[in-house]
Design a protein that fits this description.
Order of helices and strands: EHHEEEHEHEEE
Number of helices: 4
Number of strands: 8
Oligomer: single chain
Largest sheet: 8 strands, mixed
Helix content: 25-40%
């Protein structure tokens, strides 16, 4: 990746690459994932009925990462109001990390949320994902502990603690 990163909607031929990157990043982070979550992470095209999947590509149109933008309440979302949006499944290929790819993906979602008239964007991230948390905080998200979740299973069966972050779009230019 020598040139600028471009963000665009996922295309059919991107889906296997996005699935591979997402699964690799999440497995690297957690070591083990339940089969149903693996299926959710890798069903990139299956999300399209309920969400938007964006990809970051380099000048050769090689996929560097992806993110899911959920613009309404539903199966994929923790949000419950039409003026909210949610970010899910941010993943950047290891060789592209540290180059602004994650920031570009999140920014594209924030721009879309503004265009959609959303007032708030939220997300959940694992307590162990400090690098992602720093990115979100740098972009204006703040912790919303009252919205944290614990997903059963994983991390030696004590569950995975997911931290909630929220961005009030009206307070950030």
């Amino acid at each position: 990746m020598n040139g600028a990163v471009q963000i665009r909607a996922v295309r059919d031929h991107d889906a296997p690459v996005v699935a591979r990157i997402t699964l690799a990043v999440y497995l690297d982070e957690f070591g083990f994932l339940p089969d149903d979550y693996i299926a959710e992470l890798t069903d990139v095209l299956g999300r399209l009925g309920e969400a938007h999947v964006l990809v970051a590509v380099d000048e050769d149109d090689e996929v560097l990462g992806g993110i899911t933008y959920v613009d309404r309440p539903g199966r994929l979302a923790s949000i419950d109001r039409p003026d909210q949006a949610e970010l899910r499944m941010l993943a950047v290929a290891p060789e592209a990390q540290g180059r602004g790819v994650g920031t570009a993906l999140v920014q594209a979602c924030l721009d879309q949320a503004r265009a959609d008239g959303k007032r708030e964007v939220m997300l959940h991230t694992a307590a162990s994902m400090r690098r992602a948390q720093r990115l979100y905080e740098r972009m204006g998200f703040h912790r919303a502990a009252e919205r944290d979740l614990v997903v059963e299973g994983g991390v030696d069966e004590g569950g995975i603690h997911l931290l909630a972050y929220v961005l009030d779009l009206e307070s950030v230019a």
